Amino acid sequence: MNSGPWGNWNAQQQQNPNPENNNSGQEKKPDNNSNKEGFFDKLKRKINTFISDNFNSNKSFKDYFKQDNGQKSLFGLIILGIILLWLSFGIYKVNSNENAIVLYFGKYYKTATPGLNYHIPFPFGKVIKKSVTTVNTEEFGFMSQDNRSNKKRNLEAESLMLTGDENIVDIEFQIQWQIADIKDYSFNIEQPNQTIRKSAESAMREIIARTPIASALSDGKSKIELETKVLLQEILDSYKSGVRVVLVQLRRVDPPAQVIDAFRDVQTAKADKEKEINEAQAYANDIIPRARGAASKVKEDAQAYAQEIIANSEGEAERFVAVHKQYSKAKQVTKKRIYIETMEKVYRDMDKILIDNNTNKSGIMTYLPINDFKKSDKKND
Amino acid sequence: MTKKILIIAGIITLILFSSIFTVSQTQQALILQFGEPIRIISKPGIKFKIPLTQNVVFFEKRIIDLDLPEQEVIASDQKRLIINAFVKYRITDALKFYTTVNNNYGLANKLSGILDSSLRQVIGEVNLSELLTENRGEVMKQIKDAVSQSSEIFGIKIVDVRIMRADLPQENSKAIFARMQTDREKEAREIRANGAEIADKVRAQADKEKTILLAQAKKNSDIIRGNGEAKATKIYGDAYGRDPEFFSFYRSMNAYKESMKVENTKVIVSPNSEFFKYFESSK
Predict the structure, then answer these.
(1) What CATH number did the domain enclosing A194 receive?
(2) ipTM for the whole complex
(3) Contact criterion met (CB below 8 Å) for A220 and A211
(4) pTM: predicted TM-score of the whole model, two decimal places
């Protein structure tokens, strides 16, 4: 019956006691699904069965004695088996991410490192295992999704802090910590989590209380984180808490909601300022090259003008000199010729009215119809 | 017979068990005999006592946390503060502790009173601004010393007193918010005005440069023109100076041609002029 899947030594020890008792229903249950059970679960169940089998019914116990009078050595074997079984409970495993402390009669005995270890089992000894690699996170001023189920905290009171220049900032931060010394952690502080939380908040507030708001809002963040981490570690060390602060991180530093618009407006104002200056710069960049262009045009025009009039003067002068040269050869005739040629040209296309100066003397009144001139002007237009 | 032995054995075991107790690493204990403390056990482990007449009271050996609820405290500059503090203490003398306050609740009652008054006393002597500097640690140390002194009689050691929150009351917070707001408005205005100032400067500078450029150009242009004209004048002068009489005539002739080009010019002339010298007779 016991040749089931647990063919280990303690199961074999169990095989010997009165087989008729082993046939009780209790024994059968674990047999069916024993494959899925852990070693210790099996062991426990086995013991329970064993104890109930042997002590529940005094009668069968006595009967056993009476019946197997000559087998006292067998009984001794059973006792030995029980003792061995009990001793086997002292084996415990510390996982690679854990440390364990061993207590005997409540007194600290040693700290056990990962691996298979042994201690004298209950009721004398006790093992407390704790993960020392797990990074625990405490959140302040906010609750991340996974922690939302926790009890409600007054987030606003938690996140509003007074700064060094008597302003108020709205801060969300988180800290991460690990157990550095499992002994200190277990024996020195009564409520580690609460102690860490309170110390962290106190440290952060102390640091913020000496930081001006402008620095907290802009470039002072990493300094705040660092100082808080150092201070928090100091506080926790002073309690010998066995806790190592891994990280202090500011998640969000904002002005309080009541005044955030004003703070944003300052940012907007800064942008506005840049914009204004850029526009002016654009204006300058636009008009100055144009002015340079215009200036250069003025200069070129002037040079062109100068060149032009000089050229003109030279040309005219040459022309005059040439004409004058010929003129000096036959002054009278040339002058006359030029005069007549000029007048011919001048009068050619003109409306001319010839009036003899002497007509006045002849008694005829000269009438000059200026209006007609004008009319003919219009016609010609 | 065996029954009797069994009963006696049972009783002995019972007595033995009731005389054995363990003190955990996190605990200390006090043994009372008829209610009178007779022995302090500060080391953990398995311990014995006389059954029936003695009983054991356990005390915490770790650092214990005590919260002080929010208190309104007035700083020496009459600014009101809401202070929230906590104390970390350790029971060092279980006997004293037991006789004076009996248990943690009893202590909490007395200690909050002491902490409260120490807070008021120490903070009442400093300005709020001092709490907002690195002196805060110093202030906390003073509070700790004050609390330590007054709580010595309870058999405890004050490990730490820390101010957790030091906030201004609601009304003051409002005032601060208002001030922060106006501060920022001031800043924003200044920034904008500053922007306008710089922009105007840039514009004015540009305008100035433009004007100067153009004026400079005009000046140069006038100089160039003047030089050109001077040169032209000299050339004219040199040429025409050879015969002013003829120049006058020649130039006039040219001028007539140029100025009376237009077709519709009307002229009233006398046949007596030189041009018409031969108009009426050939003499």
Answers:
(1) 3.30.479.30
(2) 0.72
(3) yes
(4) 0.66
